[in-house]
Amino acid sequence: MYRTKIFDHVILMFGVFIMVAPVVVAFMTSTHEAADIHRNGLSLTWGGHFVETYQTVLTREGGFTGKITGFNMMLNSMILGLGFAVGKIVLSMLAAYALVYFRFPLATFFFWVIFTTLLLPLEVRILPSYEVMNTLKLTNTYTGLIVPLLASATGTFYFRQFFKSVPDELLEAARIDGAGPFKFFIDVLVPLSRTMMAAIFIIMFVYGWNQYLWPTLMTTDEGFFTLVRGIKQILLVWVGSNIPDYNEAFALAILAMLPPVMIVVIFQRWFIKGLTESDK
Amino acid sequence: MSTATDLLPAARGGTGTKTGGRRFGAFRLFGGQSSGGESAAKRVQFSSPFLPYLFLAPQLAIIFIFFYWPSVQAIQSSFYLEDPFGFGSTFVGMTNYTDVLKSGEYLGIARFTAVFTALVTFFALSIGLLLAVKADGVIRGNAAYRTLLIWVYAIAPPVAGLIGMMFFDQHIGPIVELARWFGWDIKVGLNYFDTAFSMVVVSVWKQIPYNFIFFLSGLQGIPVSVREAAAIDCRSGFRRFWTVILPLLAPTAFFLLIINVTYALFDTFGVIDVMVKDKAANNPITLVYKVYMDGFRGNDLGGSSAQSVILMLIVFVLTIFQFRFIERRVHYN
Amino acid sequence: MFKKFSLAALTIAFSATSSFAATNITWWHGMAGRNGEVINEVSKKFNEAQSACALTPVSKGTYEEALASGIAAFRSGEQPNILQVFDAGAATIINAKGAVIPAEDLIIKAGHNFDRNAFIDGVRYFYADSEGKFVGMPFNSSAPIMYINDEALKKAGVEAPKTWEEFEAAAPKLKEAGYIPLVQSQLTWQFTENFFSRNNIQFATNNNGYDAVVDTQLKVTDPNLIMMFDKLKAWKDEGYFAFYGAGWNDNQKVFEEGKAAFWIGSSGSFGGLQKTAQMPFSATFLPYWGSIKGAGTNSFIGGAALFAMSGKSDEENKCVADFFQFLTSPEIQYFYHKATGYVAITKAAYELAQKDGYYKEKPVAEVGIKQLMLPAGDWSKGYRLGFYPQIREIMEREYGRIFSGETTVKDAFDTIEKEGNELLARFAKTAG
């Protein structure tokens, strides 16, 4: 490998600064009091209310039923994030495998059928989607929360791009060894796609984790509250008597970042070079 | 453009490195081979009477139920003027479309959307790529950089918006105070250009980690042997990047290009909503925000559905253009 | 273990039977934060006060999200019993004949008395039909009032103005004393809709839209309204008025920091101001023009009302009626008034608050109610306009352009009238 230059580090440091500074600021701000944040905005100093604010958001039983606790919201976000990410990877890998590695009539047509879903995001078709969910009696269920979000092409498109860049020789070699489509997929393609799967997993987990509008529309039971919805609930204070509890919103935001960070850390090793013995 | 490996005699026959032959000629999007193989990317393919359909089935089922069914309804309502509660609707043919396209305001929004999309896509991609290449190059601290650059991606959109808004606050925003040093008085929410600037900055900021992750995973997928060969072949880092690394990243870059365009068109909605503080007024907004304002807030189903369809057509044309003119330059293997 | 389990099963079975008798009703609202918590408290109070009905409130995000959710649910037959709808969305739901049961009918049918006169004047008409029958139940009501920086007045040696003429006289002194004389937070609500009501001028044809949907047209090219905005523009150029865009908070902040003398805000803003204002403040009515004949009438309510959705069983409707009755009881009204800063909507609740000495303690809390109780005029009761959220957006856009110098006041109102009337015509077709 070639030597790293100081200059590269400078660029990276600057990148990290640009990306991380706002988060640090959010954390520092969360230790101040709400009125103070409203008056003075963001803060780089320690506000000293760390313990009480975080204790409040974690343990307070909110809502009408008392079911809205920090822990419960976290669990719901987790289910949404994991369900969405796993579902997305399984569906899109299978579909992309069919599109790239099989010769069959109508393949192009199917590709476009799937691809078209990028053209109309859920937000734009949200009311008819909600009617469909009501028809299927899926409101207030995790299925209803997760499955409609899976109806988009991003994952399939990405794996298609990736599979296309996998050398043909691998398949030739596998076929000489007498591997069938299943064996090739499991033994060759999946190990080869690890980095890609990790990338997709992180992106999709966060996407599911951060959903707001759809869960709000789909659920009427406070037991389905997610963290992001909790954050929005705090910030949506109407013009009038109160200022939002910014400190709690920021504290929830910081808490909401922890699980995705864990995911990133766990998948780190998938990103590490040299693990793949099957060099492309 | 030649494939990387052609430049690398050292890599030929090197252990485990396979070189795809050069494939001239673009893959053709429509028509193409009569056998119907999708874009015929692979020289070798399985053929099976039912397996591919089996693999496609779950994805297609979900798409048909949860995408096409509601979408067809959305398209249908674009030809009607209806009371939102569903009591009465009048068939008005193309009126919703002509109303929209006649409006000077709509065309202004379309113009802004085009500029905004171009800027956000360009900056988010190039910064993401720059950071990924640098992070891929360093050995020491590699993991730390990676973690720090990726985990920011996890910040929830309402919070990202809130932070962005506070940074650009007219009275106490740090960025505003910084700009005053340079004699630029930023007034987000008041001045069209300033608001547009802040929207681009926050939108780019939110998208950088996404591009970083995919570029990095693409880079990490490049075999060590190829890199070593490239390092021997081209002394200059810049040339090496340009002639070897970039072509190998092309499929990823093409995917990201499409994703970033759709991001800038659709997913920046949350950022815009926060930056205009819930009130568009005379601030710049994008087409999708207009759809939301008219449909979700204004309860004008017909008008907003017509706008959705127009938006769909725009993206469709754009996508076809990207596939025809850009993907043909992308080399797979 | 087993014993424990059976005990738990027993209690579950028991509690199920005890609540089995109660009729469940749901209430979708668009409030969050502290106001959302107060809604939960009010619901709990209702459930504790009686045993026949069990009310569950559900937060559906913002006002707009709540309305859109309610509409979507109605279309697939899953609507809640009660939906909270904000002022600008009122025409959407009231004009959808058959979507709601008028609150007054519902309450009378359930065997309660209903006295329109029990409500204060500024509240009575906005959510009612043209005969004055209550369609929606006014719930959280606010009025645009003028907050005063007491220090600024002292320093400049001026009195709080009742009319805009008095403001014009005081503005130079305030500016000299180093203050921004005037800021405001919502030009549509405070300087357009309530300009018409405070100065008793017609806002739209067909009795401000109350009488019919077809052929309703805006009258925003009224010379008085144009005069008001010409003045605002001139004041801004002279430094008597500052404008920070359409964001509510950007404009409020200069007042909180003590840099502005007067701020037009909401009657409910004082709770937040007490925490954030860095100087003593008081409040008075929204000014009007002394030169306009018949001006000085009451303003009408902002905020939101509760609507009883149709298509529900008689038992459930009876519960909704009981709840509406419960809400208007003086004790609950007073509790809500104190907890949120929204005004009390019945005379009885207002009197209760007076008796309790609440206004001695917080005089600012009374200003909004008093303004709503001023004598009414022909045009002070509000408006009933379809697609109004979008019309507001057009106004906001044009107002922004006025102050950034992209258009003249006259042209701006011509545009608002033209585009607004196109929307009204489209709305009339949706009812087709």
Q: Could you characterize the architecture of this molecule?
A:
The complex is a heterotrimer of chains A (280), B (333) and C (432). With 280 residues, chain A is mostly helical. Chain A has helices at 6-29, 34-40, 50-59, 70-101, 107-115, 126-135, 142-146, 154-164, 168-176, 181-192, 194-209, 213-218, 227-235, 246-267. In chain A, helix 13 runs antiparallel to helix 14. Chain A is globular and about 70 Å long. In chain B, strand 1 and strand 2 (89-91) form a beta hairpin. Residues 1-40 of chain B have low confidence and may be disordered. Chain B has helices spanning 51-77, 95-102, 104-137, 142-151, 157-167, 174-181, 192-220, 224-233, 237-267, 269-275, 287-297, 301-325; strands at residues 80-82, 89-91. Chain B starts with 50 loop residues before the first helix and ends in an 8-residue tail after the last helix. In chain B, helix 3 packs antiparallel against helix 9. Chain B has 333 residues and is mainly α. Chain C is an alpha/beta fold. In chain C, 51% of the residues lie in helices and 12% in strands. Chain C contains 20 helices and ten strands. Chain C has helices at residues 2-20, 33-49, 63-75, 90-95, 103-109, 121-124, 150-156, 164-176, 187-198, 205-208, 223-238, 248-256, 270-276, 314-328, 330-340, 347-355, 358-361, 364-372, 388-403, 409-430; strands at residues 23-29, 53-59, 82-86, 100-101, 137-140, 144-149, 180-184, 260-266, 281-284, 304-309. In chain C, helix 2 (33-49) links the parallel strand 1 (23-29) and strand 2. Residues 1-19 of chain C have low confidence and may be disordered. At the A-B interface, helix 1, helix 4, helix 5, helix 6 and helix 8 of A face helix 1, helix 3, helix 4, helix 5 and helix 7 of B.
